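Give me the 3D structure for Putative phosphoglycerate mutase.
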Amino acid sequence: MTSSRLLLARHGQTSGNVMGILRGADSRHDELTDEGHAQARTLARQIAALNPEAPRVYASTYTRTQQTAAPVAELLGVPVTILDGIQEIDPGDWRGRPYSDLKTSFDELVGPDDSVSFPGGESQRDVADRFEMALNTVLSQPGTPIIVSHGGALISVLIRLLRAPVVDSWRSDRFAQANAGLTELIRTPSGWAFGTWAKDSEQI
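Predicted structure for Putative phosphoglycerate mutase (204 residues):
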């Protein structure tokens, strides 16, 4: 038996989010702000209200996802499992640049064959590959996986799972999620489809 329902959440707010600077793995030990902890508690209630069957909670190797997942797991009565492969995208040479450059200088990231890649870092395809590999492990088990990850990583894997165009999806912020935003995917005969889409919940 495999999972037919998947919940994907972004971590709560950190001081790095407030600063709006791309930092990649340099931010792995960043902690949630007070607002971020409040967002995590709200997320926990939102997920509990969805009544997930046999829930399993996973967080990336970064502190902020583990702190976000903690109240979710506590409310559901399950542990948090650390899952490698779902960490944030490596911005490479863009480390230290403001989030706003993702809008004003986005064309610097566009490559051939509908690709998006950070020079010296990872591409959307790189992140989707490792994220999907991690998902395949948890989706092979029964129950409802709840994955707490990161903005860029979630955009990358949603593009893959929903078979969406890469450049247009990044440029339009189609899959961008606010801090503690929640997305529910349902497996159908033709692939994954949206269940609940909450990209605008709990804005920074």
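The domain at 5-143+151-198 is CATH 3.40.50.1240 (Rossmann fold). Let me know if you want a second pass.
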